[in-house]
Design goal:
alpha+beta; Rev_trsase/Diguanyl_cyclase; elongated; GGDEF_dom; 322 residues; Beta-Lactamase; Nucleotide_cyclase; diguanylate cyclase; 4-stranded antiparallel beta sheet; EC 2.7.7.65; binds guanosine-5'-triphosphate; Alpha-Beta Plaits
Length: 322
């Protein structure tokens, strides 16, 4: 049985299929004539079964969790990062308080699964309600199957890294234009469904060209990085922040009751100037335009255009005032 809901690996990634892992576990339990086999993922405080073999006698479904405080076989495998074979657990006093032994399991053969970095991912294991007498070749077999799972993890790791690289602006490490278009439209769709308000801030650095021309491109780059960091500092994790290109940035805010967009914009502007000064970069200000999603049918491109126009008006007004 697969754990479809909570598991962080989404089959939408297409590169990776939990069904393949399910087939591997089912095949392994068949070959071992065992009633239960698992792929277990270790998180901070629990051991979570992410794939569980499909025999009726198997008491644990995918999604079941065992506490990291419990005396369980997988914990020892990951502590030693070595295979473990327990052929007759009730004859070995170290497992007396194990909840698995209390559930009737007598035999365990498991191997550690690692991420490509070498960090522990979890375990690949087969369990039986009776004493077993596995040949050494059984361990070899389970290690071979584990290697297939590790190959998938390496693929997934590469894919995740590549996707992140493709979505991030290489200078500021916030979302790039392509990611912004995708993520913001998605957020608008969700906001319509869940009924929360969205506001878009269009942010442009004032007098950026003179800053570049006077102090050099590297100083300009530092100012861009400083703005990205300021946005991360001032906005919420649920907000989407990105760089559209040049000195133009955007934030898509999930508006909460009591939020005042003008105060958020003022805070961004003030904090940016303070941060520039702290970093020894010549101080300049921001022009920030905004748009609040008005009609349910409006799409992200239209919202962005309104925020851009508002920013342009504010910039012209501030230039006229100087
Ligand atoms: N340092 C640096 N400069 C960049 C980058 N991308 C674009 N620019 C420069 O950013 C400047 C943006 O020009 P403008 O928007 O006209 O600059 P501005 O002086 O802020 O004009 P106003 O918005 O009217 O205040 C141009 O000089 C670009 O060459 C970058 O990645 N790094």
């Amino acid at each position: 049985m697969l754990e479809e809901n909570k598991w962080t690996f989404r089959r939408a990634d297409k590169q990776f299929s939990l069904e393949k892992w399910q087939k591997t576990i089912d095949l392994m339990t068949d070959l071992f004539s065992a009633p239960a086999g698992f792929i277990v993922h270790k998180t901070d405080d629990v051991y979570r079964i992410i794939v569980s073999s499909e025999q009726q006698e198997n008491p644990y479904d995918a999604g079941a969790e065992l506490s990291a405080d419990d005396n369980i076989f997988c914990k020892k495998v990951l502590r030693d990062m070595a295979p473990l074979y327990v052929d007759h657990a009730s004859q070995d006093s170290q497992w007396d308080d194990s909840p698995l032994v209390k559930d009737g399991f007598e035999s365990y053969l498991g191997v550690p699964i690692s991420w490509p970095s070498g960090d522990p991912f979890g375990t690949f294991c087969v369990m039986d309600f009776k004493q077993t007498h596995y040949q050494p070749s059984f361990l070899e077999l389970i290690e071979q199957l584990r290697d297939m799972v590790e190959d998938d993890l390496a693929l997934l790791d590469n894919f995740t890294q590549m996707r992140e690289i493709a979505m991030l602006d290489s200078l500021t490490n916030i979302y790039n234009r392509r990611a912004i278009d995708l993520l913001c439209q998605h957020k608008l769709n969700i906001s319509k469904r869940l009924g929360f308000d969205i506001s878009c801030l269009f942010i442009d650095i004032n007098s950026f060209k003179p800053l570049n021309d006077t102090y050099g491109h590297e100083v300009g780059d530092l100012a861009l990085i400083c703005l990205a960091d300021t946005m991360k500092e001032c906005l919420r994790e649920t907000d989407i922040i990105g760089r559209l290109g040049g000195d133009e940035f955007i934030a898509l805010l999930q508006v909460q009751p009591g939020d005042c967009i003008d105060s958020i914009a003022d805070k961004l502007n003030t904090t940016f100037q303070v941060n520039l000064e702290k970093r020894g970069i010549p101080v300049t200000s921001l022009s920030i335009g905004s748009g609040v999603i008005a009609q349910p049918k409006e799409n992200f491109a239209e919202l962005l255009k309104r925020a851009d126009e508002d920013m342009y008006e504010k910039k012209q007004a501030s230039k006229a005032a100087r």
